[in-house]
Amino acid sequence: MATAPKIHLYSLSELKTTLDDHLPLLLSSSSQSLSQPLPKAKRFTPIHSTTYVRLALGYSAVAIALYIFYLDYVQKIKFTDIKTTTTLAVLAYFSLNGLLTLWMWFVERGEIFKGQRRDGDATVDVKIRSLPPHRKYDALYRLVISWSSNNQTGNSADRDVTAPFSKFFNTDSKFIPAAFEAWVKEVLPLATGTVADMQFSSSPGTLKKDIAVGEAARIPKGSSLEEVGEALRRETVAKTGADDVIVLGSGEEEMTPRKRGRPRKGQQ
Fold first, then answer.
1. 3-state secondary structure of 143
2. Cα atoms in the 13 Å half-sphere on the side-chain side of 5
3. What was the pLDDT predicted at 247?
4. Range 136-148 average pLDDT
5. So what's the pLDDT on residue 192?
6. Which phi and psi angles does 235 have, rounded to 5°?
7. Which of 141, 147, 130 minimizes the C-alpha distance to 188?
């Protein structure tokens, strides 16, 4: 395995880029930079369709600019003679760049890997997007993992996971591939298992939503805030297996603004 380069620990973009570049290698190759490569049968075949569209739009815009440069500086054609051509070229150039921006914002949306592999008689598709953390400037690495299978049940799921950057980089500013690869295999069991291992219903990224949906049908209308909090507490304990949990904001005292400030006399 190659020696890990030093990374600027205070540059969140550099930390994110390092992990974004390593993840596709783990899922699709046997690169020497990997600590524990996946078995060949478990690797995904990358699908570059979204990348090809982005490159086509970008290179088309560059080709238009080069063509106008050729007419002006090589052929020495007067501007008045190619005024119409230049106008159309400028419109086409900005249109292509506008489409490229929209494509990156609304189609790719941070996509860093898209792949496919056979799993028995089924074909499994995986798409992974790398997004900013939910709160700006948090030192967290966030992935949104989507997968689907064309088996008889037509399984599909999404998972939103995060982990601190400090988990993958040491104090010497070096990337720890083994730690990152172990985490990816944990949040994406499909990397080392089968479709049957992909149970996202109780994952950290979807647990809160599952609890809300599960309890919605069982909480009567007009229930007090305490009753809602108690229902959520019971559901969370049932799903996580914990002995007990505290549902923040479930009590009237915590939700009443006047009781957040200076305590009353006799409560100090």
1. strand
2. 8
3. 44
4. 90
5. 75
6. -65, -40
7. 147
* pLDDT tens-digit series, residues 102-131: 999 999 999 999 999 988 788 889 999 999
* Residue with the larger pLDDT of the pair 161 and 156: 161
Q: Which two tokens stand for residue 159?
A: 């998972």
Rounded Cα distance between 197 and 261, Å, is 48
Span 207-226, pLDDT tens digits: 344 334 344 444 555 555 56
Structure tokens at 130: 């790398």
- Residues 240 and 242: their CA atoms lie apart, in Å, by 5
Nearest to 215 by CA among 228, 205, 225: 228
Residue 173's pLDDT is what?
Answer: 86
Three-state SS string across 212-255, please?
A: HHHHHCCCCCCCCHHHHHHHHHHHHHHHHCCCCCCCCCCCHHHH
Q: How many CB atoms lie within 10 A of CB 167?
A: 13
User: What pTM, to 2 d.p., does this model score?
Assistant: 0.69
Residues with Cβ within 8 Å of 118's Cβ and at least 6 positions away in sequence, in order, are 124
Helix (H, G, I), strand (E, B) or coil at 22: helix
Q: Which residues contact 214 (CB under 8 A, 6 or more apart)?
A: 235
List, as one string, the DSSP characters of 145-204: EEEEE-STT--EEEEEEEEEGGGTB-TTSBB-HHHHHHHHHHH-GGGTS-GGG---TTSH
φ, ψ for residue 142 (rounded to 5)?
A: -120, 130
∠ Cα 127 129 133 (to 5°):
150
Q: Do residues 126 and 188 lie in contact, with contact meaning Cβ atoms separated by under 8 Å?
A: yes
Sheet hosting strand 156-164, strand order edge to edge: 45-46, 111-119, 122-131, 140-149, 156-164
CA distances from 240 to 40, 106, 145, 188, 204 (A): 34, 35, 21, 19, 10
